[in-house]
């Protein structure tokens, strides 16, 4: 792992950020409602304090802004900061992480947060921000968002996906990442900006991370981060990560996700003349499996269609490819039944499913060796965490975080739908795998689900409303006291 203490591109006041100590002596460090200008922690700390060198200029401005609640002009500024982030091209497979991190470091400095850039894989920076709490020994809150986005096909968009065009008539901001999930990352920062301006100080440490590579599996992002000593030092009690937009009035919240099983099934059989009817050909063997899998798929899908189960509660089965035939330069040999055939399948499994039974079914019914069939996992996500329990976060009052979260959304005027299982994968799984509770939540109501789609957009009003929701959520989580959660730190009180 490489720790980078300065952003990649030269920025205007970095020389000052790196040597904040001389300035600190003159600062009112006893004031809790001012930015932490000091580099926190003991010697060797790599935290970079915000705005050290600009203190004299910015302090009066900061004090002035304390009085300013969200006004039309500050709303417009928040929207334009969101647009600026959306315009940074962080699309896979060649995301400009350096530009995103440089922009976010500037934002963090302006908000008054301490920053560290960690690099667990070369060229893939993870930005870690800290808002120190009054009682840093308490388990902390970690607010996660990924900086990368999926690619787009600009020709199929009404407005260029990197333009972040604000359509004045509809109030929609069109951009790749407007829902998934640059909105959330900026909403965290805007909410914290408001809270700090209002003089609020958290009890717990609040950490905000901007992580790379979620859209390609997070292996060189959050997966490496959760295994690091830097992560352990954060003493994380709860993670907030991404959810999905909701076309209705209610926000969606996710407490678990389905695990991917990507597998190939291969069939072998005697080759034969294309005119001959005989048993045990590779294609016949494979098609029998495909038919059985399709029946299973239909049964699962029917449960969703009838409303009996939510999308995340069933096993989904989708065919990714079919491969067979004997190629010629212009196509395939037509009068020959091939000796091998193969199908690729994407299966997603909710944590409630008995996976041993499913795998038995795979071996006995969908890829039986009795029909010369084999199967191979390309990816086999576990539905269990490292302790052997289903990898899900409890979303009822037996989890002390849940009522606090639920109530804080309601207090800000939001409605929460019934907690759901996320139908696909997010980085939240890496936290749940090691037993840390994580909720997936992106406050976007009255919004069609357009992640990874053409014309992805979020309306300005929903974006601003979401900032208010996070203000309430962060405030509640940051000050929540609970013996169950804080047991370890009780001795220190
Ligand atoms: Zn996402």
TrEMBL record:
<feature type="binding site">
    <location>
        <position position="180"/>
    </location>
    <ligand>
        <name>Zn(2+) 2</name>
    </ligand>
</feature>
<keyword id="KW-0378">Hydrolase</keyword>
<keyword id="KW-0963">Cytoplasm</keyword>
<feature type="binding site">
    <location>
        <position position="215"/>
    </location>
    <ligand>
        <name>Zn(2+) 2</name>
    </ligand>
</feature>
<keyword id="KW-0862">Zinc</keyword>
<comment type="similarity">
    <text>Belongs to the peptidase M20A family.</text>
</comment>
<feature type="binding site">
    <location>
        <position position="452"/>
    </location>
    <ligand>
        <name>Zn(2+) 2</name>
    </ligand>
</feature>
<dbReference type="InterPro" id="IPR001261">
    <property type="entry name" value="ArgE/DapE_CS"/>
</dbReference>
<feature type="binding site">
    <location>
        <position position="242"/>
    </location>
    <ligand>
        <name>Zn(2+) 1</name>
    </ligand>
</feature>
<keyword id="KW-0479">Metal-binding</keyword>
<dbReference type="InterPro" id="IPR002933">
    <property type="entry name" value="Peptidase_M20"/>
</dbReference>
<dbReference type="InterPro" id="IPR010159">
    <property type="entry name" value="N-acyl_aa_amidohydrolase"/>
</dbReference>
<feature type="active site" description="Proton acceptor">
    <location>
        <position position="214"/>
    </location>
</feature>
<dbReference type="GO" id="GO:0005737">
    <property type="term" value="C:cytoplasm"/>
</dbReference>
<feature type="region of interest" description="Disordered">
    <location>
        <begin position="1"/>
        <end position="28"/>
    </location>
</feature>
<feature type="domain" description="Peptidase M20 dimerisation">
    <location>
        <begin position="256"/>
        <end position="365"/>
    </location>
</feature>
<feature type="binding site">
    <location>
        <position position="146"/>
    </location>
    <ligand>
        <name>Zn(2+) 1</name>
    </ligand>
</feature>
<feature type="active site">
    <location>
        <position position="148"/>
    </location>
</feature>
<dbReference type="GO" id="GO:0046872">
    <property type="term" value="F:metal ion binding"/>
</dbReference>
<dbReference type="GO" id="GO:0006520">
    <property type="term" value="P:amino acid metabolic process"/>
</dbReference>
<dbReference type="Pfam" id="PF01546">
    <property type="entry name" value="Peptidase_M20"/>
</dbReference>
<dbReference type="InterPro" id="IPR052083">
    <property type="entry name" value="Aminoacylase-1_M20A"/>
</dbReference>
<dbReference type="GO" id="GO:0004046">
    <property type="term" value="F:aminoacylase activity"/>
</dbReference>
<dbReference type="InterPro" id="IPR011650">
    <property type="entry name" value="Peptidase_M20_dimer"/>
</dbReference>
<protein>
    <recommendedName>
        <fullName>N-acyl-aliphatic-L-amino acid amidohydrolase</fullName>
        <ecNumber>3.5.1.14</ecNumber>
    </recommendedName>
</protein>
<feature type="binding site">
    <location>
        <position position="180"/>
    </location>
    <ligand>
        <name>Zn(2+) 1</name>
    </ligand>
</feature>
<dbReference type="InterPro" id="IPR036264">
    <property type="entry name" value="Bact_exopeptidase_dim_dom"/>
</dbReference>
<dbReference type="Pfam" id="PF07687">
    <property type="entry name" value="M20_dimer"/>
</dbReference>
